[in-house]
Amino acid sequence: AVFSANAFAKESPPKIQVYSRNPGIYGQDNHLICHVSDFHPPDIEITLIKNNEEIPGAQQTDLAFEKGW
């Protein structure tokens, strides 16, 4: 018999937090930050959407600090 670790892994939906870097001021640029954590399997695609359209120019970084998260 062949067993795979994935066969026993439970899928977990991501926890998502969205917030601005600074308090919002009308007419001034700001950064929107989306923090995604606690999901399994670890391969995930994240897209920021506004009014059913992908937000152009959105930048992503990988902040995975823990090995094997």
TrEMBL record:
Domain Immunoglobulin C1-set: start-end pairs: 16-69
Record bears the keyword Transcription regulation: no
Domain of life, source organism: Eukaryota
Keywords, in A-Z order: Immunoglobulin domain
Name of this protein: Beta-2 microglobulin
